[in-house]
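Query structure, 390 tokens:
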């Protein structure tokens, strides 16, 4: 149930409890925060059904919103093509529900393109150990076809650190080496954020976070242009989208359970966040206030009046202020006319409205000597309704 449905219910005590956790509760919006603290007007998180963890014998199930790039079905090879210029069909094979590199056939890439994402991929180096350093179980996972997270059998196999398994190749070594033995399945969970450029200037370098078999190995590592072999890369702009590539480095490395979840844009890339620029905050606050006023137009009584006052926490609006002020003044006059012996039945409404007026006065959205507030405060004092301090 959403808040807009809740506030239409004619249940004073229930509505008061809901408002206590929403409107007129946490610190209000400010110049760089479009939402209040604990704001019920913020969008609710999208429901995602979680997946399951993999075992050595069986890959886990992806979360419900994942885009499957390879889940073990032979026909899913059609989602991949050779990375050669003509984009021909790949010679990699699907065997026993596993995608396997055919040495010498070249890189493969997805037909689908994407950018910021949560990527999950599992790989297994040959159980028969051959070679050493970069010659043993070598492959690579290239985000947007450009940034390589190294795949390498580094189980008791040292190599140059910025080229070991889960390194950002040529940029940053992993913080740990949590690989299992050759032939066992290794799990990479990667959070990727591309660089953001505006007017030719870098405003966000982009980052990668990597977990290997549940162990953090890259902690928000800057991209520094994406890395590469032997030469230091420089910051660069990335395209809007790009494919996922997997490297053929001459070893028959196997892959399974490949999926990704697209991530929402960061603020620097046109998305929203808790803290935003003053210009973006003002625009978002105006949008929220407009939505609240539209909701208030469907309501009646105190619920409508409180929603109109709530809208003023986000953006001033003369019409909303006038309607709410007239309504609360009428309410205060009506409560003053209730005989003292019958006021108890109005306690929930009076306390609810007074709570809102106190909040608005505290944050200078109403004058502290606001007449309706003073009248209601007087009733509360006479009736001794204030909670007793312990």
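Result returned for the query:
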């Amino acid at each position: 149930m959403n808040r807009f449905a809740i506030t239409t219910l004619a249940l004073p005590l229930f509505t008061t409890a809901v408002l206590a956790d929403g409107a007129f509760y946490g610190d209000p919006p400010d110049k760089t925060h479009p939402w209040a603290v604990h704001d019920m007007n913020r969008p609710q998180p999208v429901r995602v059904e979680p997946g399951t963890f993999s075992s050595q014998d069986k890959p886990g199930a992806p979360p419900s919103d994942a885009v499957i790039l390879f889940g073990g079905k032979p026909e899913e090879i059609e989602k991949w093509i050779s990375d050669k210029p003509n984009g021909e069909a790949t010679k990699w094979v699907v065997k026993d529900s596993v995608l396997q590199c055919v040495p010498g056939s070249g890189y493969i890439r997805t037909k689908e393109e994407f950018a910021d994402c949560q990527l999950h991929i599992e790989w297994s180096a040959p159980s028969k150990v051959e070679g050493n350093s970069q010659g043993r179980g070598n492959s690579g996972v290239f985000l947007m076809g450009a940034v390589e997270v190294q795949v390498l059998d580094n189980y008791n196999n040292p190599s140059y650190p910025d080229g070991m398994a889960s390194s950002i190749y040529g940029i940053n070594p992993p913080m740990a080496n949590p690989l299992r033995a050759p032939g066992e399945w290794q799990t990479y969970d990667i959070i990727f954020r591309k660089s953001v450029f505006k007017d030719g200037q870098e405003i966000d370098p982009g980052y990668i976070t990597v977990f290997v078999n549940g162990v953090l190995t890259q902690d928000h590592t800057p991209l520094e242009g994406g890395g590469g072999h032997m030469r230091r890369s420089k910051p660069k702009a990335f395209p809007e989208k790009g494919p996922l590539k997997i490297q053929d480095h001459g070893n028959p490395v196997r892959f399974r359970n490949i999926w990704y979840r697209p991530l929402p844009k960061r603020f620097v890339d046109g998305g929203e966040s808790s803290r935003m620029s003053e210009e973006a905050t003002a625009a978002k606050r105006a949008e929220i206030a407009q939505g609240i006023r539209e909701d208030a137009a469907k309501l009646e009584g105190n619920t409508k009046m409180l929603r109109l006052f709530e809208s003023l926490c986000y953006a001033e609006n003369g019409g909303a202020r006038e309607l709410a002020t007239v309504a609360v003044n009428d309410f205060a006059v009506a409560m003053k006319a209730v005989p003292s012996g019958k006021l108890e039945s109005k306690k929930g409404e009076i306390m609810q409205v007074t709570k809102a007026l106190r909040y608005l006065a505290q944050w200078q959205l109403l004058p502290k000597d606001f007449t309706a507030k003073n009248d209601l405060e007087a009733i509360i004092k006479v009736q001794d309704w204030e909670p007793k301090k312990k």
